[in-house]
Amino acid sequence: MKVLISGASRGIGLFLMKELIQRGFKVFGTYNKTKPEVAFADLISKVDVSDINQVKSWVTSIVEPRDKIVVINCAGTNYNAFAHKAEVDKWTQVINVNLIGSFNLIHSTLPYMRELGFGRIINFSSIVAQKGIPGTSAYAASKAALWGMSKSIAAENAKKGITINSLNLGYFDIGMITEVPDHILEGIKKTIPSQKLGNPEEILNTVMYLIENEYLNGTSLDINGGLY
Predict the structure, then answer these.
(1) How far is residue 225's CA from residue 199's CA, in Å, rounded to a whole number?
(2) How many CA atoms lie within 13 A of 49 on its CB side?
(3) In sequence order, what are the beta bridge partners of 69?
(4) Helix 52-62 and helix 101-116, axial crossing angle in degrees, nearest 10
């Protein structure tokens, strides 16, 4: 089984790549700007996921006709601005990476999945799309759009043994949260019923569950410690 992870240069994508390699999966990842200095760096390729031609070229260099494929869409970017002050080009870039980038990888791998009669697609969404946080309209729009896209693609491909689901992540002790000042981080923790950040292992456990489950399809799963 081959696992393709977009956005594997840091944060959740890099964590999942490392853990899945240790579990015996053949894993390949992408980065856009900075290639990580890790033992498996040769398995991570520079790909702009918003460019369909780059994505297709990467997929065809890795996937063979009889491969079972798991796609994990972790590539993402952010732009914070109130809507009336936003620079439209920067706002649109978030959509291009987070939404269109996810679609590009799905679009490029679906023919292989359909031919074999097996596929797993896992998209990463966010609590931000559910809460209405000021300044996050681009990020929230890109992540909320994954829900509808996933349901449609699930309906199109369920008979082919393909599942697609989204994980709505809350606040985890990994990735961009490490850049949040301590006093703000403490405030975030107080809003979480469990009063703590999530452990990345919980993300891994859920990813493994989705890979192994053939009847969970077209859903959005909240992993947020009870935060609503």
Answers:
(1) 10
(2) 31
(3) 2
(4) 40
Q: To the nearest whole percent, how much of the chain has pLDDT over 90?
A: 81
Evaluated on CA atoms 89, 131, 171, 187, the torsion sign reads positive
**20 or 172: whose pLDDT is higher?**
20
- Rg over alpha carbons for the chain, rounded to the nearest Å, is 17
Q: Are 72 and 122 in contact (CB under 8 A)?
A: yes
Instruction: Judge contact between 177 and 14, C-beta under 8 A.
Output: no
Check if the beta carbon of residue 19 is closer than 8 Å to that of residue 36: no
Which residues in the chain belong to E strands, given as ranges? 2-6, 26-31, 44-46, 69-73, 119-126, 162-169, 220-223
Using CA atoms, how far apart are residues 130 and 123, in angstroms rounded to an integer? 16
Q: Is this model's pTM higher than 0.90 or not?
A: yes
pLDDT of residue 70: 98
- One DSSP character per residue, 140-180 reads HHHHHHHHHHHHHHHHHHGGGTEEEEEEEE--BSSGGGGGS
Q: Which CATH class is domain 2-223?
A: alpha beta
How far apart CA 79 and CA 71 sit, in angstroms, is 25
Q: Among 31, 79, 112, 139, which one carries the catalytic annotation? A: 139
31 classed as catalytic: no
